């Protein structure tokens, strides 16, 4: 398999100073998978434009380690049409020519951090072949579990004073925040709580949040903030590793915002570095909007805010934007999930009889807020914004007491028209609990030996993990309160329940 590396990847990889630490993980995986590393002639031209002759010389030596494409694919047809419509300058056109190599099938995958390249890939319907670094790492990790030889430890709460400030992880903060010096600010926070995550005992993620009341001054933010109770994301950085730690930390942010009853979440952030741009993209995906500028001695930071008013309308079509809130107008379905898969897919919903240590964040699907549920249910009329109540099946012979409702999800999309097994695996692999072999069994399940064209294929529900019930009503309660009126007629797939059923479950769970 041939993998084409965009110019921005080569620059970060071969620079004398480490600009983007995620590049190291990327190249580890490329080497593990024995992919042929390719570069485009345009990349060589762009590197040779550097004004520093010594840098050009050094770069030309280093790019000898890559396979230089000998010819360029014809730049014509749809890609030339799209380029003429949205490319504004020569650099944009060069990016389109690099993208053209994967569009024409001359290379298998393109890795690029350029937003516009990904926009053009969507217009060309080749997004599945064009990756940002973190997306490729997630794909590689999910598809090759046997090659994963490192472990992500569970998120920990540590005092600032327990975190090693000298760690190179903080170098980017030291460069960005010199007035006052970052180290001095950090040391003054020694008794405050941070959230951290380690990879092979190396710090890979850090989060600090604080609550600000209505009286907080915001004279340095333009346009001015209204008086509100807010949660501020004070320090947030995640190193790419394929384990969706960014989403895991977002869950911590949203959980704290709910607990502290804030009406807005905000962050101030520079966009100088790839990890900052990636973080901004993640925040925008989950409903943060650009607000304005915070003026500081270190330069102007961008301000992004997320409305966290519980009474605001919920976006049914794009539920991520108003996550974690659910719509009172959407339909509600209850669905069973077997014990063997329940806590693997929904680790925050582990039971008291299970140990959270068995579900540390060493699989992408555990950390992801966006998850996949595979079903053969007769009921398949779910739509975006609908609510899913997950029922964890009980122990054989004692299901009435041990089967419990644990979790609520929000439907993002329903995929029923899946053309073949390969497509099914690709759609499920990163956010499902199943291995490739298990997924193949699901796809080919045929108990009555029907002809292949008559086999009922599974469909996919992409959903957002919303929240876990603190007190879990069991099957006995569900039966007595009419949610499952007949315990001999348990739902085998999705079954619609009423809004009042949903309210009754919530009242039982949250008011105990």
Q: How does this model look, in words?
A:
This protein is α/β, with parallel strands linked by helices and 512 residues long. It folds into three domains: 2-131, 5'-nuclease (Rossmann fold, 3-Layer(aba) Sandwich); 156-307, Aminopeptidase (3-Layer(aba) Sandwich); 327-510, ph1033 like fold. Helices cover 33% and strands 22% of the residues. It contains 19 helices and 19 strands. It has helices at residues 7-14, 22-32, 41-47, 53-62, 78-86, 90-103, 115-123, 133-143, 171-176, 182-188, 245-259, 274-285, 339-345, 364-367, 399-402, 421-428, 436-444, 475-480, 499-510; strands at residues 2-5, 36-39, 67-68, 109-111, 130-131, 156-159, 193-199, 202-212, 221-222, 230-238, 264-269, 289-296, 299-307, 332-337, 370-375, 387-392, 404-415, 459-468, 495-497. The protein has an eight-stranded mixed beta sheet with strand order 6-7-8-10-11-13-12-9, covered by helices on one side. The chain has a six-stranded mixed beta sheet with strand order 15-18-17-16-14-19. Strand 10, helix 11 (245-259) and strand 11 form a beta-alpha-beta unit. Helix 2 (22-32) packs parallel to helix 8 (133-143) and helix 16 packs across helix 17 (436-444). The longest helix has 15 residues, at 245-259. The chain is globular, with a radius of gyration of 25 Å. Mean pLDDT is 90; it is low at 354-362.
């Amino acid at each position: 398999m041939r993998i084409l590396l965009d110019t921005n990847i080569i620059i970060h990889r071969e620079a004398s100073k480490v600009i983007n630490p995620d590049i190291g993980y990327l190249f580890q995986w490329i080497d593990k998978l024995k992919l042929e590393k390719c570069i485009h002639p345009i990349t060589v031209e762009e590197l040779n434009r550097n004004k520093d002759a010594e840098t050009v010389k050094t770069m030309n030596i280093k790019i000898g380690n890559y396979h230089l494409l000998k010819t360029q694919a014809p730049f014509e047809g749809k890609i030339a049409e799209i380029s003429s419509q949205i490319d504004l300058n020569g650099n944009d056109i060069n990016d389109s020519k690099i993208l053209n190599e994967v569009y024409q099938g001359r290379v298998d995958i393109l890795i690029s951090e350029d937003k516009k390249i990904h926009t053009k890939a969507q217009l060309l319907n080749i997004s599945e072949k064009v990756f940002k670094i973190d997306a490729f790492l997630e794909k590689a990790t999910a598809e090759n579990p046997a090659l994963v030889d490192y472990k992500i430890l569970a998120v920990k709460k540590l005092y600032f004073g327990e975190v090693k400030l000298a760690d190179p992880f903080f170098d980017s903060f030291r460069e960005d925040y010199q007035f006052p010096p970052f180290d001095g600010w950090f040391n003054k926070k020694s008794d405050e709580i941070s959230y951290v995550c380690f990879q092979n005992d190396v710090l890979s993620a850090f989060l600090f949040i604080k609550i600000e009341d209505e009286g907080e001054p915001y004279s340095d933010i333009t346009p001015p903030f209204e008086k509100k109770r807010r949660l501020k994301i004070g320090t947030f950085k995640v190193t790419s590793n394929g384990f969706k730690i960014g989403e895991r930390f977002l869950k911590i942010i949203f959980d704290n915002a709910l607990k502290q009853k804030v009406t807005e979440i905000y962050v101030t952030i520079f966009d100088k570095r790839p990890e900052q741009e990636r973080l901004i993209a993640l925040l925008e995906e989950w409903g943060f909007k650009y607000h304005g500028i915070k003026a500081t001695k270190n330069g102007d930071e961008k301000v992004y805010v997320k409305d966290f008013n519980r009474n605001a309308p919920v976006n049914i079509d794009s539920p991520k934007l108003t996550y974690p809130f659910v719509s009172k107008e959407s339909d509600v379905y209850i669905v069973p999930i077997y014990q063997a898969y329940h806590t693997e897919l929904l680790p925050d919903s582990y039971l008291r009889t299970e140990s959270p240590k068995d579900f540390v964040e060493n699989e992408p699907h555990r950390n992801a807020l966006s998850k996949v549920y595979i079903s053969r249910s007769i009921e398949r009329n779910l739509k975006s914004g609908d609510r899913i109540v997950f029922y964890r099946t009980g122990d054989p012979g004692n299901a009435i007491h041990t089967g419990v409702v644990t979790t609520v999800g929000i439907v993002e999309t329903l995929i029923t028209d899946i053309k073949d097994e390969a497509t099914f695996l690709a759609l499920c692999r990163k956010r499902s609990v199943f291995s490739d072999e298990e997924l193949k069994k699901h796809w080919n399940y045929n108990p009555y030996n029907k002809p292949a064209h008559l086999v009922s294929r599974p469909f996919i529900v992409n959903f957002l993990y919303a929240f876990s019930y603190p007190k879990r009503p069991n099957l006995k309660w569900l039966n007595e309160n009419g949610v499952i009126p007949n315990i001999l007629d348990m739902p085998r797939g999705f079954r619609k329940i009423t809004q009042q059923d949903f309210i009754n479950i919530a009242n039982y769970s949250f008011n105990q």
